[in-house]
Amino acid sequence: MREALAAHARQELPNESCGLLVLRDRVAERYEPGRNAADSPYRFELEVDPDLWFLEDEGYELAVVHSHVSAPPRPSRTDVENVGLWQGRPYLIYSVASDELACWAIADGSIEPLALG
To answer: Cα(112)–Cα(104) distance, rounded to whole angstroms?
Structure first.
């Protein structure tokens, strides 16, 4: 899955990529690539198949994944300000420049690292 999201991020350059990681009991089962409706190298607006949102009704947890083109895999000010639906949930960032993946929880302006398993 890591390679799938990394390949997606490289494919979307020069813009940020975005998608969903589908989890069960905090274990990733698959990566679902999305579309960055913002078409921007600095921010993302996630668009995915609407049916994916119903996976939560089936006991799955959804985590957002997006790339940073040249920045480290740490939430930017834009990420924190636009966390919206993803507040307090796993928020993954892949850095294309450094080939690093990190996971965070962002809530009320606070940023906490989460372990990747």
So the answer is: 6
